[in-house]
Design goal:
By secondary structure, the chain is an alpha/beta fold. The protein has 13 helices and 17 strands. 39% of the residues lie in helices and 19% in strands. The structure holds flavin mononucleotide.
């Protein structure tokens, strides 16, 4: 993996600090007049590449985006748009601010190119995030924004679906799609609904609310890599039988964590994530959109994810550990050349 000098310096810092430094620098660049232009020049895929696609009725300028937990509060939407990403999944959005787990809560397993995430969804909460998405500027016009809804650490299991509905209703008119997190990693406590009843309890109130709206906003379910074959079959049955629009596979893995300190993300997850994407795609006869997430560390992983059946690919640890240029390299691998005007007139 080719890493820039900047990325190698970032990797000398603890995992959470290095991410903060990146996001702070990006924010500073976004504030100076030519900063966004520099981000675009250095990081965004060439306009000459044909990367556009329509997925669940939404137009994406390219299929590579940012997974939840990277810009949880939607603070860097302008800068991520300038950097050329096709979409950003903000969140997990929770109804109230919460601090997350005390630090250190993100460990780097350097040799394995993986992280152990026990961050516990630190969030500034719904009101703050709403403010950020409401103030979307013209710079984010081409950026698709997804809202990942997750659970507050303190919420009692009986109240989770009410909590999800509250965030969904408030965010509905401001985002382009929703991801319902069915693999929450809140302060060492997993919340992974696995049965048909548990999963339907989460999504049915959302379908009900959407039925009463003029605009249609797609709803996807994000699943855990720790589900058994039978549990994945249940998810696919729900996908086929209900108005669910797609699946995001996968979140971090608790089962793979040798330290039992959180959820594994990064290279240790790659093969499992691709295997699940392929299984869901085949079982649903390639009829439903899948966002591939989990261990996408290189441009080859992006290609493998898409060959397995992902329509979109969401990055997190790959960018944290290998840098933002991953987008450009992956775009060069998956693009088809754009037809010239001359070709169009033939
Ligand atoms: C620090 C960190 C925070 C995360 N926070 C969230 C979150 O709030 N909600 C969520 O659904 N997933 C969250 N994730 C999981 C990622 O969105 C992604 O599904 C997972 O990391 C696997 O992809 P990766 O291997 O490319 O990182 C987080 C991951 C990391 C590393």
């Amino acid at each position: 993996m080719r890493r820039s000098l900047f990325q190698n310096i970032l990797r000398l810092l603890p995992a959470e600090t290095s991410h903060r430094v990146r996001m702070t620098l990006m924010g500073l660049l976004g504030k100076i007049p030519s900063g966004r232009w520099w981000l675009k020049l250095g990081l965004a895929p060439s306009r000459k590449l044909n990367l556009e696609r329509e997925v669940f009725g939404v137009h994406f300028r390219n299929p590579i985006g940012i997974a939840a937990g990277f810009d949880p509060n939607g603070d860097r939407l302008n800068e991520l748009a300038a950097s050329g990403f096709g979409f950003v999944e903000i969140g997990s959005v929770v109804p109230r601010p919460q601090p997350g787990t005390p630090r250190p809560r993100l460990r780097r397993l350097r040799k394995m190119q993986s992280l152990v995430d026990n961050s516990g969804y630190p969030s500034r909460g719904l009101e703050y995030i709403l403010d950020n998405v409401r103030r979307r500027t013209k710079h984010t016009r081409e950026l698709v924004i997804g809202c990942n809804i997750g659970k507050l650490t303190a919420t009692h299991p009986d109240d989770i679906s009410k909590e999800y509905l509250r965030v969904f209703r408030n965010m509905y008119q401001y985002v382009d799609f929703f991801v319902i997190n069915a693999a929450c990693n809140t302060a060492s406590k997993q919340y992974v609904p696995r049965t048909r009843e548990e999963l339907l309890a989460l999504v049915e109130p959302l379908f009900e609310f959407r039925r009463g709206q003029l605009d249609y906003c797609p709803i996807l379910l994000k699943i855990s890599p720790d589900l058994s074959r039978e549990e994945i079959d249940t998810v696919v049955d729900i996908l086929i039988e209900t108005p669910l629009d797609g699946i995001e596979a996968v979140a971090g893995s608790f089962d793979m964590d040798p330290t039992h300190g959180g959820a594994i993300t990064g290279a240790m997850l790659t093969d499992r994530a691709i295997e699940i994407v392929r299984y869901v795609a085949e079982r649903s006869e390639h009829n439903y959109p899948i966002i591939g997430s989990g261990g996408v560390m290189t441009e080859e992983d992006v290609v493998r994810m898409m060959e397995a059946g992902a329509s979109l690919v969401a990055l997190n640890t790959g960018i944290r550990e290998n840098g933002m240029r991953l987008l450009k390299r992956a775009a060069n691998r998956i693009a088809t050349p754009r037809e010239t005007n001359e070709d169009n007139t033939k």
